[in-house]
Write a structure and sequence with these properties.
The protein is built from 13 helices and 15 strands. By secondary structure, it is of the alpha/beta class. It has two domains: 247 residues, Thiolase/Chalcone synthase (Peroxisomal Thiolase, Chain A, domain 1, 3-Layer(aba) Sandwich); 150 residues, 3-Layer(aba) Sandwich (Peroxisomal Thiolase, Chain A, domain 1). Strand 10, helix 11 and strand 11 form a beta-alpha-beta unit. The radius of gyration is 20 Å and the shape is globular. The two termini are 21 Å apart.
Length: 415
């Protein structure tokens, strides 16, 4: 019989603020973290999109033990270390009393050190091979986030990194929970991290016609399920969850915040970037998570949707929910917190899973802001514009990624 897995800590570094309290406060106030990109951060003069969800209150010194490591690492790695530090502190885990050989990391990124690659390529083209930093390779590879976190906390157990585009954070948490369930670790720090607000990334997504171009009104650019949505908004940050076996958490007297209930993963096997128009992939994914949790669709009270604010994704996800939930689809409450954070790419799924756990713990649902004109093809209930109190036992969080990859997590209120 597999072990029970619980959540005892989490850490957030997002456009809504650095730290859990700032994030929850912003969610409850329907505050957008999307704003124009300042010139000192990036020259957007030639870019068609000039705004993003930015982390602008971040002080790494507040979280990192060795200040020199900040200079060695790319920002996506530093975000992961900081979010992990918040999660460890919240959990009350005493690193001198736990078996560090049974503590692991499972942290991924969708893009990784994109800024380092972009800048190094520019230097190489201009000045040759001698201008390549010896730190270039180790700072830009995606698994360095998981490795750096393991070094920071001396976690010597399993050390993995998932790279599944926008489903990375979701898959990282789901796979980490399975590591604990099969008895390979007692504690896992898991999630995603991203910092890719660069000219190349924005230009690439914009040329795919994937990004909103509301340069005149950035705060209202991310509007999931609204008929006037015109694309997603890039964001950055990290969400890291501390998972433990139930036995380990109880033995050390930890406060349990939520219980991991189920996990599903699937492939569309359909298209490089577009979701299957029949919603087959996300439908099978949610069904797998429900089966893993041993519950029925009607048991789920809240869905934190992938809800990217792109015309196609929101319609397809809605269709998938209808297929899975049937007559219960009109009863379940859904919201997309990307309306406030933007799309954190590889960090999106883990940030949103944490938001789902916060909602479970507080029995309050974060809203979908900027929802003004319903789309006839998105006709479910999306918790419009204001948070809502709600008594519920299970929360589900969806992620869909390029390459046709899907992930679903289900958490249970701890009682």
């Amino acid at each position: 019989m597999s072990k029970r897995v619980v959540v005892t800590g989490y850490g957030l570094i997002t456009p809504l603020g650095s730290g859990n309290e700032k994030n929850w406060e912003s969610l409850m106030n329907g505050k957008s973290g999307i704003k124009p990109i300042p010139a000192e951060r990036l020259n957007t003069e030639e870019l068609p999109v000039k705004f993003a969800g930015l982390v602008d209150d971040f002080d790494p010194a507040a979280y990192v033990n060795d200040p020199k490591s900040v200079k060695r690492h790319e920002q996506f790695v530093v975000f992961a270390i900081a979010a992990s530090a918040i999660a460890v502190k919240m959990s009350g885990l005493d690193l001198e009393k736990v078996d560090l050989d049974r503590c692991g990391t499972h942290i991924g990124s969708g893009i990784g050190g994109f800024e380092a690659i972009e800048n190094t390529t520019r230097d190489f083209d201009a000045k040759g091979v001698k201008k390549i930093s010896p730190f270039f390779i180790p700072t830009s590879i995606i698994n360095m986030a998981s490795g750096a976190v393991s070094i920071e906390f001396n976690f010597k157990g399993p050390n993995f990194s998932v790279v599944t585009a926008c489903a990375t954070g979701t898959h990282s948490i789901g796979e980490a929970a399975k590591v604990i369930q099969r008895g390979d670790a007692d504690v896992m720090l898991a999630g995603g991290t991203e910092s890719a607000i660069t000219a190349l990334a924005i230009g690439g997504f914009a040329n795919m016609k994937a990004l909103s171009r509301r340069n005149d009104d950035p705060e209202k650019a991310s509007r999931p399920f609204d008929v006037d949505r015109d694309g997603f908004v890039m964001g950055e940050g990290s969400g890291i969850m501390l998972l433990e076996s139930y036995e380990h958490a109880v033995a050390r007297g930890a406060k349990i915040l939520a219980e991991f209930a189920g996990y599903g993963a699937s492939a569309d096997a359909y298209h490089m970037t577009a979701p299957d128009e029949t919603a087959d992939g996300i439908t099978r994914c949610m069904k797998a998570a429900l089966k893993d949790a041993g519950i029925k669709p009607g048991d789920v009270g809240y869905i934190n949707a992938h809800g990217t604010s792109t015309p196609y994704n929101d319609k397809i996800e809605t269709l998938g929910i209808k297929k899975v939930f049937g007559e219960d689809a009109s009863k379940v409450k859904i919201s997309s917190t990307k309306s406030m954070t933007g799309h954190l790419l590889g960090a999106a799924g883990s940030v949103e899973a944490i938001y789902a756990c916060m909602a479970l713990e507080n029995q309050i649902l974060p809203p979908t802001i900027n929802y003004t004109t319903p789309d006839p093809e998105c006709d479910l209930y999306y918790v419009p514009n204001k948070p809502e109190k709600c008594e519920f036992k299970y929360a589900l969080s969806n992620s869909l990624g390029f390459g046709g990859t899907n992930g679903t997590l289900i958490f249970k209120k701890y009682e």
